[in-house]
Amino acid sequence: MGLMGLFGLFVVLVLASSSFTVPKAEAHIADFDETWQNRSAIARQVALEAYVHEPHNVTDHVNHMVHKALEGNSTRRHLGKYTGACMATNPIDRCWRCQRNWARDRKRLAKCALGFGRKTTGGLKGRFYVVTDASDESLTDPKPGTLRHAVIQDRPLWITFKHDMIIRLTEELLVNSHKTIDGRGTNVHIAYGAGITIQYQKNVIIHGLHIHDIKAGNGGMIRDSPEHYGLRTKSDGDAISIFASSFVWIDHNSMSNCMDGLIDAIMGSTAITISNNHFTNHNEVSLMGASDSFSDDKIMQVTFAFNHFGRGLIQRMPRCRWGFFHVVNNDYTHWGMYAVGGSQHPTIISQGNRYIAPTANYAKEVTKRDYASEDVWKQWTWRSEGDVMKNGAFFRESGPPSTDKYTRQDKITAKPGTFVGRLTRFAGALVCKRKSPC
Ligand SMILES: *[C@@H]1O[C@H](CO)[C@@H](O)[C@H](O)[C@H]1NC(C)=O
Ligand SMILES: *[C@@H]1O[C@H](CO)[C@@H](O)[C@H](O)[C@H]1NC(C)=O
Ligand SMILES: *[C@@H]1O[C@H](CO)[C@@H](O)[C@H](O)[C@H]1NC(C)=O
Q1: Where is the Pectate lyase domain positioned along the sequence (predicted)?
Q2: Whole-model pTM?
């Protein structure tokens, strides 16, 4: 499409969407028809209802559960050398892992989320859908048995895979509400093609996948539900793009080397937990809020817990705007520029992480603020509590210790960063075998 064509399209989008608060220009939707308009209005309502007015209740709950998971008999066992026996070292994993019958009890996972995405149940109420076919040929009429056919369905579904496979998505995969994509027991790679998009949807779990080498899609006609398809413009090349969506839980995935972000959440998305993932070989890891002028991102509330930010990462782990971010008990072993950053006064509560700075002297600072002078950013609440700083790493704190209007005396402190090695030990996609503990 030429420049004039793009401009024309932009005008049409603006006109078509003038009664909604969410700008559509970046939505990759060429025809913002009534179906998309309705979805956008409903998604906004869901997000407003998902917003938690006392976010510290949620951060406290995560910390409480970590304490509980590490107390008693578990602690000592985890100190020794790893023998290969199944171990669940954090409260999310302890909720479902190391059960012999896990493959017959997959939906147990749906009760295990913690943090802002804790109410995410995905396809809990649905039937199982087994993906048998790795192809992705027809985008408007996806073949039964393919991942695309599974995710566009309107009804809740718990999606698993018949065997190991590499799925190269021809264009972005548009995931509909109430889905779990569960890679456990199979070695499933979403790779070398387009990525996963969750747009104006709710209640999605993505678990146990390898997602890597994702490229931008060219756009085209793509089906997003049994009743609807439409023209999409080029996609960005994110591994997972969360767009104006709520209740999303991304757990135990291995993600690397994509064209844009590994996990981006934008346009008023909220109620998100990103946990137990292993990220490697990537520049801009996770963008939370894409626009300094989009204040609707104030409702964004995201938990990052038990992730391993590993080899070959450069920046944005995450890079935040506007919202509230609980970054707790993650292991940061590699970064090239900085780890946690942002603009537009996001609240960042960094607790019990391990930050291991790179050798380069210019990259010792964990934090980075953009587009604000010090007298402005010093008002932003960015706090570091119980973080372990290695190799000269330092976190530049700012703002008041708590965003609460009252002083919190009953606050639950996080498990300190010294426990992070244990808590993140099994980050990334797990190797699970039927009939043995996973
Ligand atoms: C959009 O919502 C309106 C009002 O609820 C409804 O009448 C209409 O049928 C919906 N259209 C589509 C395509 O879903
Ligand atoms: C937050 O926690 C306090 C103290 O436990 C409780 O009284 C209050 O109801 C909670 N608020 C919400 C919104 O859950
Ligand atoms: C002790 O270990 C058993 C077996 O793994 C587990 O079921 C139990 O919850 C643990 N107790 C505590 C307090 O961690």
Answers
A1: 164-361
A2: 0.91
